Amino acid sequence: DAGVIQSPRHEVTEMGQEVTLRCKPISGHDYLFWYRQTMMRGLELLIYFNNNVPIDDSGMPEDRFSAKMPNASFSTLKIQPSEPRDSAVYFCASSSSPGLTGPLHFGNGTRLTVT
Amino acid sequence: GENVEQHPSTLSVQEGDSAVIKCTYSDSASNYFPWYKQELGKGPQLIIDIRSNVGEKKDQRIAVTLNKTAKHFSLHITETQPEDSAVYFCAASIRIGNQFYFGTGTSLTVIP
Fold first, then answer.
1. pLDDT digits over B41-75, tens only?
2. Dist. CA A34–CA B85, nearest whole Å
3. Nearest CB to B98; choose among A31, A105, A107
4. Which of B42, B93, B102 is the closest to A98 by Cβ?
5. Residue A108 and residue B43: Cβ atoms within 8 Å?
């Protein structure tokens, strides 16, 4: 299995631009999570999906952030408009049964820099 | 919600020595405790996990212990090697809600 695949690995953009991060979960996993990692705040859960349906988006910082999961093999996290404080590493993770019989499987992240 | 505290934030050990990282949690409903290793430029990778019905689990040089009464769990790495150098995260999960609560991480350096 290729694991969780994220793209791009690095993204540098200017303030005000739209940014789209992409994730392909492990096949067969029905839970998908988006996390943000910064030195100051550590790993923060932004949103998670179960069977392509958003379950908890209380961690999404503000309306500039949105996430979709149009099918079981693809999810996007969009920031529009982007701001310098959005600079962080964004991780996607998937699981077959989080906290029950299996852990989270993380991708290698997208490092976002907003100038 | 759950609160997970992790100590120490940094740890340096000589190659061959043992390393211990400790975490405490607040919610007695937490029942699953994974440990992740994160190397530079990569995502966190699971190295060992333990469930609330078990007190200890070992996998070669890595072991995790859980004290449910005191609400703390620890990661033990024996015979450390330079490739063990990384950031380690503990986490706690509650069955209901599918939420993982992560510690703040421990940067481990193994000195050759």
1. 999 999 999 988 889 999 999 999 999 999 999 99
2. 26
3. A31
4. B93
5. yes
